[in-house]
Structure formats: C-alpha cells, structure tokens
Design a protein that fits this description.
Structural class: alpha/beta
CATH class: Alpha Beta
Distance between the termini: 52 Å
CATH architecture: 3-Layer(aba) Sandwich
Strand order of the largest sheet: 1-2-8-5
Number of domains: 1
Number of helices: 5
C-alpha cells in the first residue's frame, strides 16, 4: 500500500513539470553508472517510457566509456586520454562504433520491453550531428558545429523514442 501512496505523491509532485514540458523534446544523456547494473538500466528505460506516456518527447543520447575501455583492452589497445578526452585513432574509432551500435541496440530492446517504441540512430549515418575536428592530436574527436533535428522531430511525431549514438560527421 505504501508503494501506491509513494507513486501517487511522486506523480502529484511531478505534475507541474509534466504540464510545463508537455510535447517538449527532453534530451537524456544516458551513461555512466546508469549503464552498469542491468536492473538499473531496465528501471531507467521504464522511466523514459513513462515520460513518453505522460506527453514528453524523450531523446536518448548514450555514452559508453567503460564498455569502450573493456573492448579496447580485449583488443590489446591501451586507452589514451588528453585532458579527459579519449585519443581516437582509426582502430579506436572502429571499436567505438561497434560498442555504440551494441549499446544502442541493447537500449532499444530495453525500451521495447518497457512498452516504448524505440528507434536506433547514429549521429554519423543520419548526419544528425555535424562536427569539426577538435585537435589533430585527438584524432577522431570532434566538436559539434551543427545539429540537424528534422529526422528526430519526424520520428517523435510518429511516437518513436530516438536513441542516438554520439558520433558525428
């Protein structure tokens, strides 16, 4: 019984925010500790589906640093960082893209299981994110110069929850 009261209280507290952000795009950066534990990942995706169901338009941008590090270790490549940014050469970017594709698909499966309608996108292949190289010594690390949101807005209108891998062109 306490659980129902707690949920009711939470919804009452959330109502002003639900009303304020109704039919507004809410960008969610999904990464870090939220990706470590399977139960936590499921709960986060249930919450994102709830946001969609109450009228917000969530867009998920996922990270994957720890998974990238594990994949690099498996490939006998030592991660290098410069001022907190991953130095990304050709071998590293190939690993990053594979890891992001896996994370994107796993996230979509969790959204689907929670009752949502996910769609997996890559900022690179759909030219959603345009970037310029940040510094030569960082390799394939870029700085965002432009976002092309048209495809995202179209998908949201069709009730999708876009899940975007953070790679640009």
């Amino acid at each position: 019984m306490a659980s129902f009261k707690q949920k009711a209280t939470t919804l009452i507290e959330a109502l002003p925010y639900i009303q304020k952000y109704h039919h507004k795009i809410v960008v969610i950066k999904y990464g870090g500790n939220a990706m470590v534990n399977h139960q936590l990942r499921e709960n986060v995706m249930k919450d994102i589906v709830l946001l969609k169901n109450v009228g917000l338009d969530p867009v998920i941008i996922h990270g994957g640093g720890p998974a990238i590090n594990r994949a690099m270790k498996k490939a006998n490549i030592k991660p290098k960082f410069e001022r907190g940014l991953r130095v990304t050469d050709k071998k590293t970017i190939n690993i990053v893209e594979k890891v992001f594709k896996k994370i994107n698909n796993e996230t979509a499966a969790l959204i689907r299981r929670a009752g949502g309608k996910p769609i997996s996108l890559s900022g690179k292949y759909y030219k959603i994110v345009c970037v310029k190289q940040k510094a030569k010594k960082l390799g394939y690390v870029g700085e965002i110069t432009k976002i092309h949101p048209a495809i995202i807005k179209t998908l949201i209108k069709d009730d999708y929850i876009p899940i975007i891998s953070p790679i640009g062109v």
